[in-house]
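Deliverable D2.4 — example input (structure tokens):
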């Protein structure tokens, strides 16, 4: 399937899905000895001297984590160079008072939202998509 770039189409077809897994953001030294198979991060960002990871809360045992969250996947096949999509969904969540930490995958965008607000975040995104569909 060809990645979508049209903003209206992206919003109308985003079909958000809430992952039931609770996640945490953790930071570890970039030279730390880690059992990567057990930790199984869903995302990693290398920063100066540190690796920032998003891992399932269950896998983060023994690590200091923050931002208990859930992942919402926007299942539309969004192009990596699509303009305004994340701004639109983040803006809708911001208007509802919900923070988000977006991560782009090759095919889909993922939003990490506060665990306590995840059901409401899903509803906000579903309403946004329904409005775009008319």
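Example output (designed residues):
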């Amino acid at each position: 399937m060809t990645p979508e770039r049209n903003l209206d189409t992206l919003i109308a077809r985003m079909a958000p899905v809430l992952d039931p897994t609770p996640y945490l953001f953790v930071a570890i030294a970039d030279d730390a000895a880690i059992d990567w198979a057990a930790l199984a991060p869903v995302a990693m960002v290398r920063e100066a001297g540190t690796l920032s990871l998003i891992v399932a809360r269950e896998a983060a045992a023994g690590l200091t984590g923050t931002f208990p969250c859930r992942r919402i996947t926007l299942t539309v096949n969004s192009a990596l160079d699509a303009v305004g999509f994340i701004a639109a969904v983040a803006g809708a969540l911001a208007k509802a008072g919900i923070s988000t930490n977006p991560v782009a995958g090759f095919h889909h965008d993922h939003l990490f939202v506060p665990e306590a607000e995840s059901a409401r975040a899903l509803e906000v995104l579903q309403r946004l998509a329904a409005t775009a569909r008319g």
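The chain has four helices and six strands.
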